[in-house]
Request: fold
Amino acid sequence: MYFRVRNLILSLALLWIAASPGQPNPFGFNQEPYSHAQRLVSVGSGRRLNIYCTGKGSPTVILDLGFGAPLISWGLVQPEIAENTRVCSYERAGYGFSDPGPLPRSTRAIVDDLHALLTNAGERPPYVMVGHSMAGLDALLYADLYPSEVSGIVLIDPLLPGWDEVVERMFPQFRLDGDRFIRSLAMCQNLAEKGELRTRSSTNKDCLPPQDPRFTAEVQRARDATKQRPGYWSDLQSEASNEDSADVLELNSGRRDFGSTPLILLSAPLNASTYEAYRATATQIATLASERTTFRQQVVDLSQRGIVCDVGDTGHFIQLDRPGIVLHAIRQVLHLTRSSARPSCSGL
Reply:
């Protein structure tokens, strides 16, 4: 899985999001909205998902979380976008204040939930879909299934469909590490079922890490409560298991043609140190970089107005490390929904 090779599994997906070294503290914004559910909306079968919408105007920007990330990871982006148009972030099944979903949690299941959520919440298209990491798959499939509802797409260091196979061919250990990660999620689920994640201990530190002083006590309590629910861990396991099998099949069976819909893909640098555990050679790193360029281009070529923009001095969470660039990309796509101009990386 793409997020595995970025060494984000324990540092981001299971623990708290942290700023990249040398970056400003990303938590200097109002955290109160993230300490409780904003609006719980039915998506059918007795389930409700939490959605947080602010601002007025059209198109509405939809912010979709990466794997395991908390809603607060949009805290530097949503208030700024809300000054110009309507913007909604949400927690998919099992995350935060949202109810767990039926398994498997494939991209299609996630997109079906999102469509039901937006419809039942009374939100109206057109939408600019913004997907970070694995949620890039959500944005692409949503645009496949509901082309009349999507007027623009921004992908933030997205998972690239088929990329895992490239890495696995080069480094067989990659698959074993992924399997080990899924087993660690199962372990956390087991501890949650036994009620052993209510307090911190040396045995559950990988599931319930130490408190982070950058968060308010209210936000910290909300995050701890999420991790005490077995459904959170089972949904994560299913997302991780489906990401490099069912998800890619679902995407490849889609429309795969976004016409003139503006699409900007923001890409973080390829981190060579990520592959040190696999004793990657310089030649292998160069091959990966070349393959990655090809995969990224295949994604943006789905649109007649697609472009890849490389972002320097950032980690995987560009919206925290370089929020100004994410804001610029979203605003540019909003503008392009009303013109025939092509996107540009200038100013990013």
Summary: The beta strands are 40-44, 47-54, 60-64, 87-91, 127-132, 150-156, 263-267, 306-310. Residues 9-336 form a domain with the Rossmann fold fold (CATH 3.40.50.1820). The first helix runs from residue 9 to 14.
